[in-house]
Design brief:
This protein has 17 helices and 8 strands. It is of the alpha/beta class. Strand 7, helix 12 and strand 8 form a beta-alpha-beta unit. Helix 2 packs across helix 17 and helix 8 packs parallel to helix 9. The radius of gyration is 33 Å and the shape is extended.
Amino acid sequence: MARSYRPVLRDQPFLLAPDMREWLPADHLVWFVLDALAAVDLGVFHRMRRTGGVGRQGFDPDMLAGLLIYAYCQGVRSSRQIERLCDTDVAFRIACGGHGPDHTTIARFRKVHSAAFVDVFGQVLAIAAGAGLGRFGTVAIDGTKIPANASGLRNRDRDWLATQAELIVADAQATDLAEDARLGPEDRGDGDRTGPDLASTGARGAAIAAAIAELDARQAAAAVEQTEQDEADAVRAAQRLDALTSGEALPGAAPRGVDPVTEAQARLDRVRAAVQGAHDRWHAKAQAAAAHGRGIPGQRPVPVAEHTRVRAATARLQAAQQRQAAQQAATEQAEQAEKKPKVNLTDPDSRVMPTRRGWIQGYNAQIAATADQLIVALGLVQDTNDQRQLTPMMTAATHAAALFTAMTGDQHGIGTALADAGYASHTNLTAPGPDRLIALGTRRDQHRKATDTPTSGPPPADADPLTAMDHRLRTPEGATLYKRRGATVEPAIGNLKKLLPRFSRRGLQAALEELHLAATAFNLRKIHRYGLT
């Protein structure tokens, strides 16, 4: 047993200059991040900087980029928190080289160079390819809602904005009249200088004018999109009705734009005509047999209205009529209580997004991850659903696979793209691109259908896209392959949102660039852990 404790000499100066390499082990994440960034081209951060003049030396952009990326690796996004950690945290002191920048420098650097992090994201993917990551046998695509740097309480409709604009104009006119009365209409003297209150009013007026323009643009775009959708739906409905009237069997639910009552009536007419034809043929045979004094085997057919198929089709028509009446009543009630479209004054690009836990003011982030949970493609949209995002995300993932092929020399092609029911549509099922499995219901429903009504082999040759996809998902191979989606992209999204639970930048493009910064940090952590194992 030792006689005493080790001495604690906090006022003892170092005999030799400290070496930062001895502060943390060589396999620490901060060393890996700095080494990885040293291997990529960061010249894009230097293009807006000048050296060789007079004045105080600036901070190295490479250092600031490494500091920001490491901070995002730790889930630290606040520039003030990064400034504090550069004084108190060993890893942050290593990242900044012992010269911690102030929070203004950090925030300005992130704002000015945010677009450059999109390029760094692609270069980090090249590092991942060299490390052996990126299994493109399956690529899972999913969306998640991320809150914006804005409050939902700051949403305003056009009437409120117009009222505020009128108040600002009235306030400016009242100020002019007061100055004319005090100084005279010709010579206002010092009264001509705009004070801070009026300057603030002018900035508020500009923000309100921009918000009104944003609302008008959104309403115009929505009107054009709705017109195009209505025209496409009308064409599709006419084609489907013609097919039904001609006697063609159309399995599956009616697509959008098709009147369910009209379709149910057409199906009833077709069934009634078929049953009536069989009924007439039986009576013709019975009359011919009676003329020769014979009978025909079998029971006498029931009346057409009592036939099982006719009764079932009639019940479907009545149910469709009841649903249509209920929908019309709900639509009328919604139109009476309809809320006018609103825009957020803090971040006009953000939208009100539905989530499982309620509504948020934010964006819809799209993620494409490989089988080893490497994020290879990103997107950020204002749509509340995912249906229009599958093709762009598959295209971006295909480009990433081509990058991996060019880097490694091995062939990297997307085997199967996996997506949940939020992407299910006729367009997404038939769009060009890699093979895909898109769920047609919830995960529980998919599992129950694959267990209770399994299938095997390829789908029928005459099956429509929805029927063919349903057949594939109920095969053992399709059910097993689709299960990989939940274990691929959902953990990647969960871990990414730990690093970026909320956007710090405002605006769609700025938020997308910050998403690339967070995904770069995510992939660097993934490569680091892969190297350690």
